[in-house]
Amino acid sequence: MQYDTLIRNALIIDGSNSPGYRADVAIANGHIERIGDLQDACVEEEFDAAGHVLAPGFIDVHTHDDTVVIRQPQMLPKLSQGVTTVIVGNCGISASPVSLRGDPPDPMNLLGTAAAFVYPTFRDYRAAVEMANTTLNVAALVGHTALRSNHLDDLFRTASADEITAMRLQLRASLEAGALGLSTGLAYASAFSATTDEVMQLTEELTAFGAVYTTHLRSEFEPVLEAMDEAFQIGRHAKSPVIISHLKCAGAGNWGRSPQLLASLDEAAKTHPVGCDCYPYAASSSTLDLKQVTEAHRITITWSTPHPEMGGRDLVDIAAQWNLSLLDTARQLQPAGAVYYGMDEADVRRILAHPLSMVGSDGLPEDPFPHPRLWGAFPRVLGHFSRDVGLFPLHTAVHKMTGLSAARFGLKARGEIREGYWADLVLFDPATVRDVADFNDPQRAAQGIEGVWVNGVLSYRDGQANGRRAGRFLAREGDLREGFR
Ligand code: ZN
Ligand code: CU
Fold first, then answer.
1. Range of the structural domain that residue 435 is part of
2. How far is the CA of 449 from the centre of ligand 2 (A)?
């Protein structure tokens, strides 16, 4: 047998949550052809892993990369972390199906300006991803707020029966074209007025497809448990798996409650397929939300349309300079983006370590001064939390970003190193891998990522992208409920 690539002498951490083992891996036609002692194999390209870790390529289950995968297909912030697949369309906002009437409403503006929204149907979006030759694999959810923006003249009310019918038709067409499921962003003003019933009716479309419901909860503050109950109620109604997005205890009054949240998640999991994703930082980021303006913790401005010069500065400092209250300062800055230092480290660690949690960056690629999770989430879990803090073994860290994620989202033949699987792979040095991006200098590539293969194609090596683009659009395959057993 002639192989395309042979990676020799690797410590294979296969994504299944088992400890590593030494082997060589041979790749042919985009797939992992053989794993074992392949000393005499005949190959085109050899790679000496020097005992470093070979893992499945990381799956970023929570992204807002909808339009940058097409507009900036190199995807360096993710590729440089070892990510090989991104799931887009989270938090109720997706690039498709969307027909804007003017500027994108908050928070759809996180995905770009009006010019970026050129996909009236999911099929159009899928075709554009396929045409773009993306570097990474792309799978997509449909956003509830996106559907609302197509059919409601006013987002600050619940939808009428006719509007719900129209949204359901678009959702069904998207699911037929390969969408993974529906996401909501019920905390945002543009979706907050949607009743539970509105969402339940939409999710009835998911049932026949075995598609997933993901949700940025109606509240991550004091009413977070009630918001989780609402999510589980919706999921049970639709007989759909529920993924809670970036699970957290937000706001100082809410700190220390992660054991309650995780107990609620565990309880729901006894009778229903549920899970969550999270990012490994005690600060969140989104558009600047007046409801989240507080003196209780630090807030930095990342971008502001009327005052771009304020990017990177603390809200408190800007308020002092302008001699205004925090709230009035925030009003002057809008539309704007912010980082909120509103979590407790102990809660972040507890949620990250929970067996039902996956890693998702929630990175904001449009932001000129982004939260460092955009460039650092995955190496931070491997280096900081697994190796340095000892929160869990390395094979568990890898599982939370590969095997678990692929199972939950039904990404067939991905997320593990197994013969016959797609050769999405990352080679990294477990002793040196670490996130370098921080809140002061957030756009820096991780250290220790030595090689990244997407569908068998080496796309990143020793700190450099090589411009090869072998990503694919991944349509939903089969019933996602099966990935929760
Ligand atoms: Zn969100
Ligand atoms: Cu998000």
1. 2-56+417-465
2. 25
Q: Are residues 41 and 65 in the same domain?
A: no
Give the chain's domain count: 3
Q: What are 292's two structure tokens?
A: 């989240």
What's the gap in Å between 185 CA and the centre of ligand 2? 8
Six token digits for residue 120? 């009236």
* Pair 65, 30 in one domain: no
Q: How far apart are CA 447 and CA 462, in angstroms?
A: 9
Q: Is 335 found in the same domain as 256?
A: no
Could you tell me the pTM of the whole model?
A: 0.98
Q: Do residues 202 and 145 share a domain?
A: yes
Counting every residue written for the chain, the total comes to 485
- For 466, the token pair is 């090589």
Distance between CA atoms of residues 470 and 27, nearest Å = 14
- Rounded Cα distance between 30 and 136, Å, is 13
| Ligand 2 center to 324 CA (angstroms) | 30
What pLDDT, on a 0 to 100 scale, did the predictor assign at position 40? 84
Closest CA relative to residue 75, chosen from 137, 139, 140, 142: 137
Ligand nearest to the backbone CA of 90: 2
Spacing, Cα 19 to ligand 2 middle (Å): 31
Q: What's the 217 CA to ligand 2 centre distance in angstroms?
A: 11
Q: 42 C-alpha vs ligand 2 centroid, how far in Å?
A: 45
Tokens of 129: 């991803």
The residue behind tokens 């991780």 is 446
What pLDDT digit, counting tens, does each position of 265-310 carry?
A: 999 999 999 999 999 999 999 999 999 999 999 999 999 999 999 9
